[in-house]
Amino acid sequence: MRSRALEVVGLPGVRKPRWLTSLVVQVLRRFPTPPRDARDALARTILETEALVSPLGKGLLHRGIRHVVIDTPAMRSPRWDVLPLHTLGDLEKWLALGPSTLGWFADRRGLEHHTTEPRLLNYRYVWVAKRSGGARLLEAPKARLKAVQRRILAEVLASIPPHEAAHGFRAGRSVLTHARLHVRQPVLFRFDLRAFFAEVKTPRAYGVFRAAGYPEEVARTLIALCTNRSPRSVLAAAPRLDAPAQLESLWHLKRALSAWHLPQGAPTSPALANLCARSLDVRLTALAHRAGLTYSRYADDLAFSGDASVRNAGARLTRWVEAIVRDEGFSLNRAKTRVMRGAGRQMLTGVVVNDGLNVTRERFDLLKAVLHRCRTRGPSFALRPDETIGALSARLRGEISWVASVNPGRGDKLLRAFESIDWPESSGAR
Q1: CA-CA distance, 122 to 106, in Å (whole number)?
Q2: In the beta sheet, which residues pair with residue 341?
Q3: Residue 332: phi, psi to the nearest 5?
Q4: CA distances from 157 to 80, 211, 276, 369, 405 (A)
Q5: Residues paired with 294 in a beta bridge
Q6: What is the C-alpha separation between 229 and 309, in angstroms, rounded?
Q7: Which value, to the nearest 10 degrees, does the dihedral of the CA atoms of residues 397, 399, 400, 406 take?
Q8: Residue 59: exposed, middle, or buried by beta-carbon count in 10 A (0-12, 13-18, 19+)?
Q9: Are the CB atoms for 301 and 192 separated by under 8 Å?
Q10: What is the dihedral angle through the alpha carbons of 179, 181, 187, 188, rounded to the nearest 10 degrees?
């Protein structure tokens, strides 16, 4: 290593100075094996080593690089069964993209944030109103970038398991598995993460790919393909809101969207968000265990439940959860924090959990009334504006399926009502 260091600056055969021996020892202590997956980290370590601050060390650096001695980058032994990608060339070959096209989609210079020309954008943007008030920005990747992200999801991210507490965006889990953990609990605490996708920090998402074993440059490009900075013009076109709480939430959202973030609408964002929240899930699971509670998370919805002994622990639990959430780079939407006791209605992700999984009485009665109107007066009397009979049929079938998945008995009643409706032949409902 000492000989190669002198060769790099064009001094082969020169007596090896003492400071250089010290530098080599410190580098070997930091990297016992060659860091072929972390060459930039090696460079930073060398530049920050005390030995290089000496006058002789500075003089050697000032000579400049005469000869490059560097190995081809390579993956570390992967922790999971992910697709092997050792170099940017491997990445380009796998995605069937040339260097310039890959660079355009990755957009590591953040050109998307500054352009005003729609044809130059990699995403389509739509502001949509939230049911609870406020607004969110949907960022849908265009066809070619979306195909790239789907490949990353299928062949890389799908092989990395999230924490067991995560129930959203993963096979075999759902809002029902999330809610089922908290059935018949005397006390239920619910917290909501603010702007979940937008607040995922890029360094943490980059760390997911590094943990999978990918070399630095490959990991940087992969995360660049999965993140975005929303255009200034799109952020300026955000809807106007009046309520103070909604204004505050929108301000936080726009600030997060102006930085690198996971776009809500990209196929990779749900899986990456789950993986980036792993440390959060680990700490909140430990907190729940210590407090005698059960914890689970569905996307941005955090739930804790327990027996009557924790009935008065809400304020203390809230402080601990808020501190952990903030330390992990997220923030709580305090307006949505709830403490629900067994004497009242307990709901998680739209599911009532007091005495078993159930839908709300209001939702069931409303759906039953719509079906009754369709049966007695005809489907045309239940149409929404610009809705066709076929679309109405599909919507009602979907809502009935949801009720049946939560409460099969109620679902059967609604299905019989649906089948008793005289649907036109052209609607496709028969």
Answers
A1: 10
A2: 187
A3: -90, 145
A4: 10, 12, 11, 44, 28
A5: 305
A6: 46
A7: 140
A8: exposed
A9: yes
A10: -40
Gap between the Cα atoms of 195 and 178, Å rounded: 20
Q: Which of 126, 82, 103 is nearest to 221 (CA)?
A: 103
Q: So what's the pLDDT on residue 56?
A: 55
pLDDT along the chain (430 residues), means of 10: 80 73 88 88 81 60 66 86 94 96 94 91 94 88 97 96 95 94 94 92 92 95 96 93 82 93 96 96 96 95 89 84 95 90 91 94 94 92 90 94 94 94 72
Residue with tokens 């004497």: 343
- Long-range contacts of residues 376-380, Cβ cutoff 8 Å, at least 24 apart: 378/422, 379/421, 379/423, 379/424, 379/427
Q: The tokens of 227 are what?
A: 């993140």
Amino acid, res. 243: A
Q: Is 86 exposed, middle or buried (0-12, 13-18, 19+ CB in 10 A)?
A: middle
Torsion-angle region of residue 154: left (phi > 0), alpha (psi -120 to 50) or beta? alpha
Q: What is the DSSP string of 11-24?
A: -TTS---HHHHHHH
Q: CA-CA distance, 118 to 342, in Å (whole number)? A: 52
Residues 205, 86: contact at Cβ < 8 Å? no
pTM of the model: 0.85
The amino acid at residue 92 is: E
Residue 212: CB atoms within 10 A of its CB come to 24
- The reported pLDDT for the residue numbered 188 is 94
Backbone angles phi, psi at 147, to 5 degrees: -65, -40
AA letter at 4: R
User: Which residue's entry shows tokens 């064009």?
Assistant: 10
d(CA 390, CA 237): 35
DSSP 114: T
Residue closest to 75 by CA, chosen among 196, 205, 167, 211: 211
CB 29 within 8 A of CB 51: no
Neighbour tally for 422: CB within 10 Å = 10
Going along 264-413, which residue ranges are E strands?
294-298, 301-306, 338-341, 347-348, 351-352
